[in-house]
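Researcher: I'm preparing a figure for a lab meeting and need a structural model of a single chain. I don't have an experimental structure, so a prediction will have to do for now. The sequence is pasted below. Please return the structure as tokens so I can convert it later.
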Amino acid sequence: MLNLRKVALIAAIALAVARLSSIGGQVWAVTEISAPAWRAALSLLVNDLFLAPLPILLWVVWRGDGNIAVSPTHRRIAALLAIARAGLILAPETWGLAQLLSRDWTNIELASGITVASKLKDWLVTAKPWPQLWYLTTVLAEAAFVWFLIALVRGRRNVGRAETRRSYWLREMAALTTIVSGLAVILAFVMRVYGFLQARHDPEQLWLGAFSGPHYFVQTIYGLVPETSSMLLAWIIYKSVPAQTTEIAAE
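Model: Understood. Here is the structure written out token by token.
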């Protein structure tokens, strides 16, 4: 059986590293790409800062002494989230990372040097593989997120009287994360609708078909998966923490 608290710690670390890496990438993009400052700031807010409470929540899960008694209904929701996140995000990103590393390995073999170590050192100096490292942190964070959802599904189903402790900070942090992630979902949706309305007046985009109604609708739903799954995960934790120290019937 998976240890929920240990998995929560691993997921918290992986998500925190991915968030910091993404924030660094967003700040770099602002300085390198000519885009309206307000759009860059809003993108940073939605993509990173609004999702920052999730690693903190998982850290509180690891440190807290309260119980997380997940109901059968919430287990089913967590299972669906794990399937959706793994199929829609983790699998494509893992495939993309594999393709990227395969191409990089070819470049490493072509680098100067006799041994593999010397070739790798030369490649690291000349290629500056920061995008690859960012990609790797993203894939590891997604894997850790799915792993934690699986741990919720496969967690303990029987909670006795002696184990029904309430954690104030865990419940409050779960509520805060749910609200903040919900705001991220709303803002992300508004930004995508705004992008669609702006692109309708771009003849080139319309000619390419990139912003056709059905296609853009599917893209919008796909793009909201990270924020929505983070919100639902926090909501499941909030609903699974007892509001007060009391007996919870065995499920």
